[in-house]
Amino acid sequence: MKTKLRVAAVQMNSSLDKAKNLAEAERLIRHATAGGAELIVLPELFNLYGDLRQAAAKAEPLEGPTAQLLSALARELAVYLVGGSFAEVAAGENRAYNTSLTIDPSGNVLATYRKMHLFNVDLGAELRVCESDNLLPGTEITCLETDFAKLGISICYDLRFPELYREQASQGVELLCIPAAFTQRTGRDHWELLVRTRAVENQCYVIAANQVGEHAPGSVSYGRSLIVDPWGKVLTEASGERAEVVLADLSGELLTDIRRKLPALKNRILP
Ligand SMILES: O=C([O-])CC(=O)C(=O)O
Question: Residue ranges of the CN hydrolase domain (predicted)?
């Protein structure tokens, strides 16, 4: 991993208005680069959030307007973008993939990740979600090389499945990028705990960019986007109230030092 890297998590309050969400994403990406960010992570379904049926109905192809905007911004601003996610058309299906593109500073797509674990839960009247009604699961674990670190991409509910991250760590990942729309109901007890745990157990940096606030009636996200170091220390945390950008400086030396002094990844005995 490169010695020094400034990264950003973009927290958004996306709504059902795609044009407005794209304009807001652009504003926040520009704000992050003005703060010196070299890698920026957006939240899950940043271009339309609050109703999965509408998101699926307005799904875009891989080279649709959302991808084109991300690519143009990455190129113009010369940054790496982990473009949160958007609903992607799946051929012959009325359900969509929940897809994250990672784009390099020339505007090229380096990786395409489709959310593997779908959030199907019934916590009573307070929270019932069945993502499988409108979304299709992806099947591929995604890791990629950049000039500064090896990245692992995952999305939101994936956070609850440690085997995914262990596999990414086994493939040499150093920085976990996690776009999310973690709910208010589950987030207050589980969000920070899970993000920090994934950092500690895999000795990785984590950038977890969340949605925040009410998106549509009954759809409320927890916010508090986090950037965590491989010791599990929170480097920066966003509010639970509003759209904003948080920045942190990552250190390749710290990651190497932690892995050398406490070689838990090497001390594994079970497969
Ligand atoms: O919305 C999701 O995908 C995941 C979520 O809030 C949770 O796991 O509590």
Answer: 5-252
Would you say residue 87 lies in a domain?
A: yes
Whether the full predicted model's pTM is greater than 0.90, yes or no, is yes
- Supply the CATH number for residue 154's domain: 3.60.110.10
- Ligand 1 site, residue 70, Cβ cutoff 6 A: no
Query: Active-site residue numbers?
Result: 44, 115, 156
Q: Is the CB of 80 under 6 A from ligand 1?
A: no
pLDDT in tens, 55-90: 999 999 999 999 999 999 999 999 999 999 999 999
Q: Is ligand 1 within 6 A of the CB of residue 182? A: yes
Q: Is the CB of 186 under 6 A from ligand 1?
A: yes
Q: Whose CA is nearest to atom 1 of ligand 1?
A: 182
**Could you tell me the two tokens for 255?**
């990651």
Cβ-proximal residues to 40 (8 Å cutoff; 6+ apart), any chain:
7, 8, 10, 29, 32, 33, 79, 80, 81, 82
H helices present in the chain, as ranges? 18-34, 52-57, 65-77, 162-170, 184-202, 252-261
Domain extent for 60:
4-261
Q: Does residue 2 have a pLDDT over 90?
A: no
ipTM over 0.85: yes
Kindly report the average pLDDT of the chain as a whole number: 97
